[in-house]
What does this fold into?
Amino acid sequence: MIENMLKMTCLLLGLACLGVNCRGNDQQEQSAPKLNKDSIHLQDSIRLAWSCTAPFEKVESVVYDRKRACVYVSNGKDYGIGQAGFISKVAIEGKEVDLKWIQNLNRPTGMAIYGDSLYVADVNALLIIDLNLAVVVERVEVSIKYGINDVSVGEDGTVFVTASAIHAVLKLVGDRLEIWAQDAEILQWANGVQALTNEVWVGGEHLVRLNLETGESLRMEMEPRVRDFEGISYVDARTILATTVENSALHRIQNQESRLLLQPEGYFGDLEYIPELNQLIVPEGNHQSMIYSVKCYEFQW
It folds into this structure.
């Protein structure tokens, strides 16, 4: 979703808990719901564990906080400078929502947690939020022309940020974001990012693996082809889960084979897979109905 906003922006640049409706396991039908205007198609291997609908605004990304047993959700209007953006805090199983846990932001998109810090891509700045204090403690600014989008932190604390508008991955070095990898073809519209032990995986127009030491890139092919990635989440050495921008859907990519798992009526945002629970948390929205939610799915693989 944000990628489409960024594409439009590049052309222009020249490049509280009201209304919360949360449902847990005890309120879900055991069989997969039928396809209708308010639901999505479920494969037999997936079950909706819980969902939470609140006055979210164009939900974009989620990140799971294991220490505090909650999920952070990025919200906002159009991609650009302003004060309408905010981050919501949702208790696990969606039972409680602090709608504007952090507010007066531009338009936050991707997020990542390392230690007690939440890293947030916010249009022209990487924000670092102290999770214990719930305040922004540091801003690392970049040109708005970069179109920063998603964030991932490696095991050693190295921070990577995608810059969709310049087809690049940035790296936090000291108090600066520097271009680490850039390629208008391979990293076209770089969006979702995941830092692993020896590689950084990037989803944009293509799905790409970047070697941490050499910077060498490997474009991953798959059948049927999946393109225009929104978010990616590592499952194991053979498997990732991914959402897409156009024809928004959730896919499983395993051993160069892709499988369509979920198809929303509206769109899916950036996702997070929780391996110890075998669950996936993903934001879902519909701009026509203006209904936005956070959903948790359990896999039965």
Q: What stands out?
A: Residues 63 and 72 are 5 Å apart (CA to CA).
